[in-house]
Each structure stands twice: as C-alpha cells, then as structure tokens.
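Protocol step 4 of 6: structure prediction from sequence.
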Amino acid sequence: MREGSLDAPIRHPLKWQDPDFTDPEKIDAELRRVFDICHGCRRCFNLCDSFPKLFDFIDESETGELDSVDSKLFKPVVDACTLCDMCFMTKCPYVPPHEFDLDFPHLMLRYRAMEFKQGKVKFAHRQLTQTDRNGKLAGSIAPLANWGSDRRNGLTRPVMEAAMGVHREADLPKFHGNTFMKRAANKPARTEDAPAKDRKAVLYATCFVNYYSPDIGEDALAVLARNGVETETVYPECCGMPQLEQGDIAAVADKAKAVAKELLPWVDKGYDIVALVPSCALMMKFEWPLILPDDAHVKRLAEATFDISEYVVDIAKKEGLAPGLKTVEGGVTVHLACHARAQNMGPKAADMLRELPDTDVKVIERCSGHGGSWGVLKENFDTAIKVGRPVARQAGEAGHGAVVSECPLARDHIVQGMEKLADGKAPDVAAVKHPIQVIARAYENNES
C-alpha cells in the first residue's frame, strides 16, 4: 500500500439519487472511515476549522482515538466545512486514484444532503440561497434594502441576526436595481482590428454580478471589447452553488439543465462561455458534470466554459492583449480564490495582472475564510474572520493601493479583516474588487 500519491486527483460522479447516498448508517460508517485516515495524517490541520474540530474531539476522547468519539460530534465538523475544495486539491495525499479514495468535501456534501432530505436545514437559511428572488425583490428597493443591510446600521442588523441568522457585523453585498443584464444592453463597441477580433464570447452574468456587482460585468465587457471580442450577455438563472452548500442537489441539477439548455445554442454558433465569478465557473466545469454525468448537454457546456481571468490569459497567450495597458500606481494585491484554484487552471488572475507593465503584484494563495453564504452566518462569522486573518494580514502588510480577489465576497471579507486588524480603521484601498476591473482601469488610464 502506498503512503501517498502524486497522481492527479480525480473525482467520482455523485450518486445522489441512490438511496444509499443519504442513508444515515452508511454515511456514519464512511465518516468514521475517512475521519480515522485524517486523524492519522493531520496534514490539513491549518486549512479550515473542520480539521481542528475533528482532531480536538479525537484528542479529548476517552481513548484518544476515533472509536470513542460520539457520532453526534460529527455535525460540527461538517458544519465547519465551507466546500472550498482545498483539502482535496492541494493537501490530501489520499484522494482518488489512491486506494483510500478520500473526497472530504463531497463527503461533507453527502452529510448535508442527508440533512436536507430530513428537513433539518433552517427555513431562514434556505431563504438566503434564493439569490434570484432576493436580488429582484431587494433590487426594486435597492436604497432601502442597502440601508437596512449595512453592518453599521444598529437598528436593522440586530433584527436580521435574530430573524435570519446573519451576523450583525458581517459585511453584505449591495443590491442594484440597475442590474448587469440591463447595463449590458449598452455594451461598448468592440475594437474590430484588435488581436482577438475573431473570438466570440457569451458572458454568463451570474447572480452575484447581475444583482450585486454589475460594475464587474461592465468592466469585463470593456476589456473584451478593447481586445476585439464579440460579446453577448446571458443569464437564465443562478448556477446553484448556494443550494449545493446546503445539500439541495436536486435543485442544482435542475438549474444545470436549465442553464445548459439556454447556453448551448450559443456554443453551437461558435461562442465561448465565460463565467464572471469562479464559484459559478467551478459549478459549470466540474460540479454539474459530477451531478449529471450522463447529461451530454452539461458535458458540452463544461468543455466550452472559461473563467473570466482564464479567458483573458488565453487571449494574452494566443493572440496577445490589445496595446494600451498602463502601469497601476501603488501596486495590486490579488487573492487567488479557492474556487478558482479548485478549477485546476493555474493562477490565472495573477498571470493576467502580470500583463500590466511595471506594476507590483503580490499574490496571496490562501483561503479567505468566507465560504459564500457560510461566512455571514451568526455561528460562522467569527471563525470566518479567524481563518482569514493571515490573508488580511498579508494584504495589509503589502500596502498596495488595490486589493482584489476573483471572488468579490472574499475580497470584501479580506478588507473587513484588514479593518479589524487595524482596530476599526478602514484600509485605504481602491473600490475595485475583481482583477478584471484592474485591467479595465489600466486601459482607461491610457485614454485619459
């Protein structure tokens, strides 16, 4: 038996429709098998809070081994997992094809699927995942909604904490009634003699960019237009990542089918599909095909999908970027989001920013601790800040004028962590959140 493996990790399709997938006894047996292997290795001790919790439960048990740990203590371990995939992708030596066959994140997902089936996911938490509904409703009253959700609002945030379980100090994204899909109707004219003039791309808007950060989409359109790419913008619905986090795999499957149905005709017309948020690109490229392994449409869409940073770097390598990028004074600190790293495509955001002339770029390759909707919950926020503290410290020490991440939520979480390290003083950093926005500003500076 090999001690570990240097083989490329592979993942098995999720057998979520098999009754055994959510069988409590079979899940407990698999948890004990995997946790015992983790106990003997402990290489993941510093990744997230799941592993310290597990190891503390074992070390404090009667025998100091897993056999004396009550199965009731497994739930806090599962709840602490953010599904970042970093243990699977970067740390665990026992992932498939190793014979131990460990996939810790998907085992946590299996446990959550069991809880979802049992009706144990809180109603309020389920409502937080309804991103399309929430975006449309709150967007229609955006100024009022944003006032109410501001963490500095001492009147409404305690109420949100009590009713929805959202920690009163957690920074929340702002709603926009003027969505990206509306703004995309006035997309910039493309430069027809630019290097990538033969490319065509459909931007999958994603719920986050559409309702919360439409400026990221506008900047992506501007960069692609400057490079000659013919673009369209399409948004059928959310990719389902929020539902995946809660174990509602059937809902994710439905979303995958619906989005694939609308996007594939564009692929047939020669368009690439570009996702603007790495979590969505990860879902489309990897999670959907594992949930629906026999769906040819989902497979074809996965093969045609790029992350936005990945796509710009592909242009840079194959055609070369359009001239006109200027130095970004003050430098840029870029956080490589976990869900970008989990796409196994390399540090594309860093590669893209290194196209900037004479610009100091610092790369942070560590989990921010946010974990999507996980990090804003009352029971998780303090842990999210703790896990992300090393990232916030590195960003603060860099002293750059811009701090960005491929995940806009992670970026805001990092900035909030920087503020906490500075005893409440907000860091002096630019408003841009995503690396593509830095590229867009570098082109704009050439025009001024």
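Step 5 (inspection) to follow. The chain has three domains: 19-117, 180-317, 324-447.
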